[in-house]
Amino acid sequence: xxxxxxxxxxxxxxxxxxxxxxxxxxxxxPVASVFPYISHPVHDRIVRAIREHGTEDSFPxxxxxxxxxxxxxxxxxxxxxxxxxxxxxxxxxxGLAPVGRFAxxxxxxxxxxxxxxxxxxxVPARVASLSQKRFRRLLEEDPELMRTFALQCELCTxxxxxxxxxxxxxxxxxxxxxxxxxxxxxxxxxxKTSTAxxxxxxxxxxxxxxxxxxxxxxxxxxxxxxxxxxxxxLALQHGTEFAVHSSVLLPTxxxxxxxxxxxxxxxxxxxxxxxxxxxxxxxxxxxxPARVSEPRP
Length: 297
Prior knowledge:
36% of the residues lie in helices and 20% in strands. It is an alpha+beta fold. The protein folds into 2 domains: 8-22 and 170-283, Winged helix-like DNA-binding domain superfamily/Winged helix DNA-binding domain (Arc Repressor Mutant, subunit A, Orthogonal Bundle), CATH 1.10.10; 44-167, Jelly Rolls, CATH 2.60.120. Helix 3 packs across helix 4 (143-169) and helix 5 (172-187) crosses helix 8.
């Protein structure tokens, strides 16, 4: 996939690239940026290999996909539902593996060292799994698949590194913003109430306790963060959806961008240009306010 230039004129091209960002060329890597807590979608070729040669299983909510004391010797891909990636205690932080992401088996694939952590279904989930031994044979037979998988593993490692950086260096408010950015990139859509509006991100609501586990906080503290946004008209809930104005997330997005240093990977100049893998812009729902105030520091 060719690199996409910066600039609003290329926004449509960028959106198309993001929507098709599960078929990138291993020579250049994906167009979409890496974000914490939720890793990059798995490349189409890897998905096909796992589904063609592996097996599928279903798990009820709360069931372990890989228990804490079980060896991690298989690659697991999420086909439906939402899986938690947990390292450490049962009350510690978690990462999320939605559809099209690895649940486990990729971080220790090349070293074959014991992997720490456990993986369980946050909602009923279906996964495809393939033994690491079998997948290694497939990679040996297909060098391009090997290169693609190596790059995919690096994307996952970078996402985990960003997650560790946010948990270590940011306050809870900024960690919540980082999570909303990742959640929006995965499931959100953009809406504008006017041509001058910088945009709203409309997201499916996630139970507060799960979101708090991701950012290593408590529901009480999250309320202290979200409360002022709600009062200022910068965040609101409507049915099963949650909307947050882009101005709230911009400082954290800028921090994440600066963390990437001198990378040659495409980085959006504009926050909305990231229209993330998001979605196309959609009509603004009537329940969004026509005007918003500037967020308080």
